[in-house]
């Protein structure tokens, strides 16, 4: 129960955060020769030739429009490309090239620079693996302990009670207004007609429906957390239930095959799993109490296991599973099993 209530929720939350961090990380940059690459914000890269075994490049052209004032085109005969150690920068070292710069605001400004070596540092946002801080993401019901979920349930139930009190106050005020003596009106004023009464009735009906829908939503949300609370204790308790069932069945069964025992065990497991899953769905829809939905499988199988244990302890009760051997194909059985099956068959003419 300690693992299911404390260790597993924290592990689920850490896994969700890690998967989100992995999904936000961009893959390694891939430059295809002869095609424009716009993976880096503010830059467009064109390369004529790349080498699979190294980071060397040939015929490099870089269009730099990261600055709002200057647009530049950088060319190089050769170059290398790599990331900085923290993967926050993409470093491109070019050799034997030119830089062509032109002012965007004043198109007449132009200059050309020749270089033997030139380094371009580009922001590589998203290529580094950045871990999110603890508490960045909200925890779901599978990522909370029973105590934390109980606090959420208490707050939801408080909202539900407040809505019920608000509805009761509205109805009480409406009834008081209906039976209150009419206030004196001036002689020339007209009494309230049916239109005004219909409008007030419509507003009252709308308010009551809104409050009812709100309480239904709050109740279903609280039920989901209550289901998870009971599940954290019901599933570990199932270990005791299966021991109560498995031990008597192991003693009572005789002359059966391994497949018969496995099928019997699988049948009880499917029964438990079906009760658990369907009970959770019924509880989430408000058709069954959360505690009953999560514990009904343990109750049914626990009572059956207690009965079998009592019968096994008081009486020598056995049941023969030898007939299950005949369900296994003959080619799958060993010689001893075939001989044993022949002995179990009734003798003809006896």
Order of helices and strands: HEEEEEHHEHHEH
Strand content: 15-25%
Q: From the alpha carbons, calculate the radius of gyration and give it in angstroms.
A: 38 Å
User: Strand order of the main beta sheet, please?
Assistant: 1-2-3-4-5
Uncertain parts: none
N-to-C span: 59 Å
Query: What is the number of beta strands?
Result: 7
Tags for this entry?
single chain; flat
Describe it:
The chain starts with a helix and ends in a 6-residue tail after the last helix. It is built from 6 helices and 7 strands, in the order H-E-E-E-E-E-H-H-E-H-H-E-H. The protein has a 5-stranded antiparallel β-sheet with strand order 1-2-3-4-5, with no helix packed on it. It has a two-stranded parallel ribbon with strand order 6-7. The protein folds into 3 domains: 43-123, no CATH class; 145-180 and 196-230; 234-340, no CATH class. The protein has 350 residues and is α+β, with helices and mostly antiparallel strands.
Write the layout of secondary structure elements.
Layout: H1 2-24, E1 43-50, E2 56-64, E3 70-83, E4 89-103, E5 110-123, H2 146-179, H3 194-252, E6 253-254, H4 258-284, H5 290-314, E7 319-320, H6 335-344
Parallel strand pairs: 6-7
Antiparallel strand pairs: 1-2, 2-3, 3-4, 4-5
Helix pairs in contact: 2-3, 3-4, 3-5, 4-5
What is the gist of this entry?
The protein has 6 helices and 7 strands. The chain is an alpha+beta fold and 350 residues long.
